[in-house]
Amino acid sequence: MKILSFKLGGHVSFGPKVKKEEAVWDVLAIQNELQVLPSFSSSIVDGIALGFDFVEQIRKLVEAAEKSDNASSFKREFTEIEWLSPIPRTPKNIMCIGKNYDEHAKEMGAEAAPADLMVFTKSPTAIAADGQTISIHADLSSKMDYEGELAIVIGKRGKNIPKNLAFDYVFGYTIANDVTARDLQEKHKQFFLGKSLDGTCPLGPYLVTKDEIPNPQDLTVVTKVNDEVRQNGSTKDMMFSVESLVSILSQHVTLEPGDVILTGTPAGVGKGMNPPQFLKAGDTVKVSIQGIGTLVNHFE
Length: 300
Fold this sequence. Notes:
Blueprint: E1 2-8, E2 11-16, E3 23-25, H1 27-34, H2 44-48, H3 52-67, E4 75-77, E5 82-84, E6 94-97, H4 102-107, E7 119-122, E8 127-129, E9 133-134, E10 144-145, E11 148-154, E12 170-177, E13 180-181, H5 182-188, H6 192-195, E14 201-209, E15 220-225, E16 228-234, H7 242-252, E17 260-262, E18 284-289, E19 293-299
Parallel strand pairs: 6-17, 8-14, 9-19
Antiparallel strand pairs: 1-2, 1-5, 1-14, 3-4, 6-7, 10-13, 11-12, 11-17, 12-14, 15-16, 15-18, 18-19
Helix pairs in contact: 1-3
């Protein structure tokens, strides 16, 4: 199931993409009018905590809408909605993995990817949506960079999760662009400020449930800047797999429903080019991941 969050006329909602249509089912409107279920979460993060029971609830709501006398009244055309991040606000900072691809580590000046997990975070206020115009933050940085990544969305609270059970705690996946102010990163000698400027963590367009992506270690990740391919990698080249990341992080931090983990970026970032090619006002960045879609953001 491909789930998206959106706003329409001041009304914030979410729902699955309508099959073969450029539209979304407004499941909150369905529940409100048809009263299909005894109760239904009005927050997508609260719903995710129910695991695949949440997916089944959504399916029942859609089935009820399809059987109703006016199914079209519960559909929202993509052209009329304001897209939101599939997870509008994470419970804690977004957890990010650095140098998880060997070739990216090398382009950043390392001899090889680090032997141990390299972790940093981005503020939840950095979250942005598909289609959202993002500030280039010219008053703070002249070296804004892109990083296309697969993002994990946690679906169940867990601590000290065994690697062989890690997928039980994953709800699904989305696309992230870990936009980075390289000069702030260098100036402050740590990652948080350079990674957390407003709008520098666009997520989307969809949250795709894990059943639609049976092997997250075999996905292509392509990033284009103004339609020029800059990154063309595969998650099979990750040094630490999805299940390893979930397991290792849970040894140190209690994972919660709605938590987002960025899994690292393949080679081809602007800083790694010769000469470096940083983002500028007017640029459009598209990150595509097989099975999820394309995340598009314009920079001004």
